[in-house]
């Protein structure tokens, strides 16, 4: 006799929404959903598969009503001028994974004599963004002249990551959840987050965004570290109101990347696409950052800025969609250290080789299941 399991229809709908499934995905992956909602309950095996496919803890499907899941860090997003009411499973799991990695690395750092970093929590939103931007730029050796050696956006991003990690901040850039290439993170939901800690601060950047946008997000999240606060962000550069800390971090990030004093002398006077791209190439930033700083420097009115920002955003979205369509994957051992943080990955591998961390835990932290993959990753990172 087949045993069926009673599940509240609202929970089934909640799991589907939480997973971000559209109607086509529901039809393909849960073709009996309408039957279950109508009263013909699923078998336990069917429910287990449904829970696995939607990345829902099985126990949650036995609740009387959908739970009120909260983002585990302060949610400062202002998407459409309002925080997202129901976080996706992908976003939540990305945060949980990074919290787990940070907790491990903090213990490792303490054992190896790391001391609190002076810049974590060294600023407040009462500080002038330009002054804090100067401190960040100087600590990173990231003046505009230093960027001339960057060959392209990807080179600029990698060099910036190296410089941020060199001052003690873990940087993880990924467009997927863990190592699961089928769980793609959406920049429309969030662009990044910061996990503040005096010894093991961590920055996560959504890797599905453009390289130029990732650079801005990275500095935005670094500004949160300077405030000493964890935060989930969308780094909306055109926001004119919202959380004070978000607006402040935007100002700091924009000033780090495009100092207003320098921009005033560089700007040719007309915000054409060609001029925006010229300035974006010089500063190694998005054209949207250039627009923001042109407005901040009072070289554009708010009305002109809004119009140009919307037009440029639409143009960039079209370019990004084309690039995504042309994407053909990449070398795992080239991209995985970026997803993990090279500093973090080296620490885990070294700890495993030393016997302080079991290989099973090391595999979990690195998102791999095979020892061969572990060995190859160690070779890529130069860990013997």
From TrEMBL:
Please state every residue range assigned to the domain named IrrE N-terminal-like: 189-294
Superkingdom of the source?
Bacteria
Q: What's a Pfam family in this record?
A: Peptidase_M78
- PANTHER family on file: ANTITOXIN HIGA1 (PTHR43236), BLL0069 PROTEIN (PTHR43236:SF2)
Q: Extract the InterPro entries matched here.
A: IrrE_HExxH (IPR010359), Rad_response_metalloprotease (IPR052345)
Protein name as it appears in the record: ImmA/IrrE family metallo-endopeptidase
